[in-house]
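[09:14] KT: can someone run the structure on this one? pasting the chain below
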Amino acid sequence: MKLRPLDDRIVISQSEAEEKTAGGIYLPDAAREKPQIGKVVATGPGKLLENGKRSKMSVKKKDEVVYAKYLGNEIEIDGEKYVILRETDLLGIIEK
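[09:31] RB: done, structure tokens below
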């Protein structure tokens, strides 16, 4: 199945939550913190402006991004978990 986001929405593949702390303590699923970093899987065409044109997206496929912790909609497709959110919900792009 292929997912194509609309307007200024972005599909992100979430990073895995840390299984243990820096001190070596293993965390149960309920205690793991929700990841805020992910990789862009797909982007929409951009927000439709009042003049009928579309704004250019500032991220592209395969960019690693940081996003707000409790924003977006989590979905699961073919066993993979994704987050769909608006471009304005992104906090930054991780550059290496």
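[09:33] KT: thanks! The domain at 9-16+33-94 is CATH 2.30.33.40 (10 Kd Chaperonin, Protein Cpn10; Chain O).
[09:34] RB: yep, looked fine to me
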